[in-house]
Amino acid sequence: MERLSQIRDQLIKNETGATFEHIKEAPPDAIFGISMAYKADKDPKKVDVCVGAYRDNDGKPYIFKCVRDAQQEIADDPSINKEYLPIDGHAGFRTVARDLLFGEGHPAIKEERIATAQTLSGTGSLRLGFEFIKRHLPSDVYVSNPTWANHQNVIKNAGLGVKNYPYWDPSTKGLNFKGMCEALDNAKAGSIVLLHSCAHNPTGVDPTPDQWRQLAQIFKKRELVPYFDTAYHGFASGDVNKDRQSILIFLEEGLNLLASYSFAKNFGLYGERIGAL
User: Fold this and answer.
1) Residue 150 clears pLDDT 60, i.e. is over it
2) Per-residue pLDDT band at 28 (split at 50, 70, 90)
């Protein structure tokens, strides 16, 4: 009987073990891998310039006073509970996120033409946005060359194709506006075009207001769908009003659009994963 029990246990082990044997471990994230190496390094002169996160003069994580104050207000408010939120997220959050991105009192808000959902930061917002596109507006997605490294992964994992449009001109260390316009002017009608609303990642180069207006005309002519990724609102100019101009220009031109919004960078809310679509 003991021998039969051993055989049975071995068979169960083999069967359950085989379930996941074909799955290969994903490679470590390159940026966070470097950060882990930084933490393990004992050199007192080390400097971490990999992850874009706020640090104090001693290299320690920095939390804004407004964030600490908000946390304290939440902790002291007995009316706040841990109940499930509606499927589209916290109503108050959705309202202030919308108002911050588009500007309180914008005509599109007054006319109730903006739908907002709370998401898991900017990456979660992008994934939700591209899942929406896959279901309702299936098309290839044009991204700038270069763009944030994870954009293509999120798009492809949503089952959409990726194409590039020129953006960076290494000879001028600026925007290849002519190449960008030519590529989009030849894009298939109905294509999705991912744009960085401000503080383009990784170049830091943005179109001027006049250039945004020219791009809007191309989008109208070619019936392209603009999708703005806003991960650094306030970083380009230091003014949230100026940094939303790209989006407002497209709205003024009568274009319907999508926008992903992250508060990881401008509020330093990295671990909370706060975002909106």
Assistant:
1) yes
2) confident
| pLDDT of 11 above 60 | no
- What DSSP string describes 127-156? HHHHHHHHHHS---EEEEES--TTHHHHHH
Residues 242 and 262: their CA atoms lie apart, in Å, by 17
Rg (CA), the chain: 23
Question: Catalytic one among 168, 206, 212, 265?
Answer: 265
Query: CA-to-CA distance for 87 and 168, rounded, in angstroms?
Result: 39
Which of 13, 229, 239, 243 is the catalytic position?
229
- So what's the pLDDT on residue 120? 96
43 belongs to the catalytic site: no
- By DSSP bridging, strand 192-196 and strand 141-145 are parallel
Contact 195, 224 (CB under 8 A): no
